[in-house]
Design brief:
Blueprint lengths: L2 H8 L2 H7 L26 H6 L12 H14 L3 E5 L2 H12 L5 E5 L4 H13 L3 E5 L15 E7 L11 H10 L3 E5 L4 H4 L9 E5 L13 E5 L4 H11 L5 H11 L2 H20 L4 E5 L9 H7 L6 E6 L7 H10 L5 E2 L9 E4 L16 E5 L5 H17 L1
Parallel strand pairs: 2-3, 2-4, 4-5, 5-6, 10-11
Antiparallel strand pairs: 1-7, 6-7, 8-9, 9-12, 11-12
């Protein structure tokens, strides 16, 4: 280890983000890396071409631009290697395909991202892989679900839309006792607020579409693995030919530089709005791990360094037959919040959550669930927008 390595370990989060993955003096001092686009890579002679005896061999195997982003993510995740793929869903599915075989049993958290559930119920089923969903609050008792063929446990914390926390250290310890691999979707926290590999997770997955890029205009997923599983993931990635584009990698790396300060703003604004929502009679409850009232708050406080800007709340509606109408009236009453599915960008977003696919968990009974992404707008303006939406929902 040299002096620069020692200095890097002592740097603050935002200082690391501003430097990670690229040294300007590797390319004439330009502060951002060049965008190297490639399919064909030339070899100096036939022997080198046969042996692939050079760093870059083909566009799908990486370029200096994609490597810069991967190296930055390795540093942030504490990973042996990182892969770039075209979306967050592709990141999860790549990991599953690399780590599961016909006849295996996989345990998937019941609060998983809906499109991952669809992949499990369709594609994995076609491949003869048995999928079982489990309660996110199960903790060490997950061992009661293990079978002789259990090979993978997938976590998502907090869970999609309802934000259930998971006891990551307890689950990983149990899984490793039977040599099962543990994967985790960490898009909500990013490695700035939670580093899965430090808590026993083998493969950390992000939808870089969200906070790393930060501008709602790039689709990208990342798969970061420890030394044990990195070779398998790298091999599968090569077999499938799935890769992230250099232009997207450039934009993601540029977004990464400001992710720390953006997350600070997202967190502060989200917490203020979540606490304000808790005081309202037209809100039954707020589903946000950073709130002391949230059932998983103690686990979040123990393991996580922060909370991002995404959470849900339950609109207080007495009659079930009015849930949909009042939720839609609320959404239509918004003007600053956009109606959109993704999150992590500068703009605030809202949607009506569909929980019909849950197998173990039950949806809140007090009213419809509405998910908010709190963007970078002024909090006072967002509160006023929400006030108008509550009035619209009450008026029908």
């Amino acid at each position: 280890m040299n002096d620069n390595d020692d200095i890097s370990k002592k740097l603050g989060t935002n200082t690391k983000l501003s430097r990670a993955g690229y040294d300007p003096f590797d390319y004439h001092g330009f502060i951002n890396p060049p965008t190297v686009r490639a399919s064909t890579v030339l070899f100096p002679n036939a022997k080198a071409m046969e042996s692939h005896d050079q760093k870059y061999t083909y566009g799908t195997r990486g370029t200096p631009t994609t490597d810069a982003l991967c190296e930055a993510l390795n540093e942030l995740e504490g990973a042996a290697g990182t892969l770039l793929v075209p979306s967050g869903l592709a990141a999860v599915t790549l990991a599953f395909l690399a780590l599961l075989s016909p006849g295996d049993h996989a345990l998937i958290v019941d609060s998983v991202y809906g499109n991952v559930r669809h992949f499990c119920d369709t594609m994995l089923a076609r491949f003869g892989i048995e999928v079982e969903y489990y309660d996110p609050g199960i903790g060490a008792a997950i061992e009661t679900l293990f079978k002789p063929n259990t090979k993978l446990v997938h976590l998502e914390a907090p869970g999609s839309n309802t934000f259930e926390m998971q006891d990551v250290p307890a689950i990983t310890a149990a899984a490793h006792r039977i040599s099962a691999v543990v994967t985790m979707d960490n898009a909500w926290a990013t490695p700035l607020f939670f580093r899965p590999l430090d808590f026993g997770v083998d493969v950390s997955i992000q939808a870089a579409t969200k906070y790393p890029t930060g501008n709602s205009d790039i689709l990208m997923g990342t798969v970061s693995a420890n030394a044990q599983y990195w070779p398998r993931l790298r091999h599968m990635n090569g077999a499938l030919g799935i890769c992230g584009a250099p232009d997207d990698a450039y934009q993601a790396l540029r977004g990464l530089r400001t992710m720390g300060v953006r997350l600070e703003r997202h967190q502060a604004s989200a917490l203020e709005i979540a606490e304000w929502l808790e005081t309202r009679g037209d809100v039954a409850r707020v589903l946000y791990p950073a709130l002391a009232s949230f059932p998983g708050h103690a686990v979040w406080k123990r393991d996580f360094k922060g909370a991002s800007g995404v959470f849900s709340f339950v609109l207080n509606v007495a009659r079930r037959d009015e849930y949909k109408a009042r939720a839609q009236a609320f959404l239509d009453g918004l003007s600053l919040f956009g109606l959109g599915y993704s999150w992590g960008g500068f703009a605030s977003l809202a949607l009506h959550v569909d929980l019909a696919d849950r197998r173990i968990l039950t949806a809140p009974t007090e009213g419809p669930v509405l998910r908010l992404h709190i963007g970078l707008e002024d909090v006072g303006d967002l509160k006023a927008d929400l006030e108008r939406a509550f009035a619209a929902a009450t008026a029908i």
